[in-house]
Design a protein that fits this description.
Blueprint (H helix, E strand, L loop, with lengths): L7 H15 L3 H18 L10 H5 L6 H4 L9 H11 L12 E3 L8 E2 L2 E7 L2 E4 L14
Antiparallel strand pairs: 1-4, 2-3, 3-4
Length: 142
Amino acid sequence: MAVVKATAKDINLMARLLRAEGEGEGPLGMLLIGNVGVNRVRANCSDFKGIRTIPQMIFQEHAFEAVTHGYFYQRPREKERRLARRTVNGERFWPAKFSLWYFRPPGDCPSTWYDQPFVARYKLHCFYEPTAQTCQNVYNTF
């Protein structure tokens, strides 16, 4: 059962995001990107207040490099759709299980990002999650 509402069009958007942002990181890397996206829809805190849908999350200004810089043009493939459905259905993976941010630095991961603590690195991406005091919704179970 979906933890955020998602139409077939939403799944396609999420699949495009996974491909554009995480294709080089493999299936788990794409799932981690999806976890961050779902967390942003559920969070309703910090930079993500009022983000309630997958399209709002994806097209939020300055949210994703792939959307901002035009890498978001590729059509989704079935393998990305399957991964998108898994994240929308609530599968969570560490280090993105509760993360709201990730990025790909040119070197080491900073200890904080937007004042949020570093969780871990997966391949080239660093993941950051909020504290429970600043964003309880991320930690709520489904």
